[in-house]
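Design job #97: recover the sequence.
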């Protein structure tokens, strides 16, 4: 009987168990928050890459000059059309080599267009060599912004690259 009373009155370790449970809940909440932020950034990057591909394919089709088997690369025209179309797709305004988000845009900062260049058949592109003429564009896309104490604003950016081939369509035949 005395042993039972001694065990009931001895609650050493109870405080440690409560603190451990609080830490477990804290780390679980921190993990879920971090996971949710990462998923949001991934979804924004995926959506941007899809829009990037569509805009570049459209710009290359619009910017190719010449007949079906004699297509030429018009880099200035493709760049202008790409910046305009991509800017409209993501609610941004072209400004030099950047796409500055308008109010209401989901992007935390300006998208930087690193390069737009015409590629001829046989030239090197990421993943191998170009099998036909086209355009290669590189972007740096901010997908998340954080205000870091004592440092300031920092962006998580995703580099994106895409090669679009010149396609010909002859509807007159």
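Job complete. Output follows.
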């Amino acid at each position: 009987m005395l042993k039972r009373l001694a065990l009931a009155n001895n609650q050493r370790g109870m405080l440690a168990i409560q603190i451990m449970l609080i830490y477990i809940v804290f780390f679980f909440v921190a993990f879920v928050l971090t996971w949710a932020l990462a998923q949001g950034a991934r979804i924004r990057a995926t959506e941007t890459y899809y829009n990037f591909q569509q805009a570049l394919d459209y710009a290359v089709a619009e910017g190719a000059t010449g007949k079906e088997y004699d297509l030429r690369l018009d880099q200035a025209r493709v760049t202008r059309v790409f910046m305009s179309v991509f800017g409209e797709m993501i609610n941004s305004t072209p400004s030099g080599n950047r796409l500055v988000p308008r109010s209401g845009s989901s992007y935390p900062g300006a998208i930087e267009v690193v390069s737009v260049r015409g590629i001829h058949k046989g030239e090197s592109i990421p993943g191998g060599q170009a099998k036909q003429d086209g355009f290669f564009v590189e972007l740096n896309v901010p997908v998340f912004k954080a205000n870091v104490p004592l440092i300031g604003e920092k962006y998580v950016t995703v580099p994106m690259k895409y090669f679009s081939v010149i396609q010909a369509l002859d509807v007159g035949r």
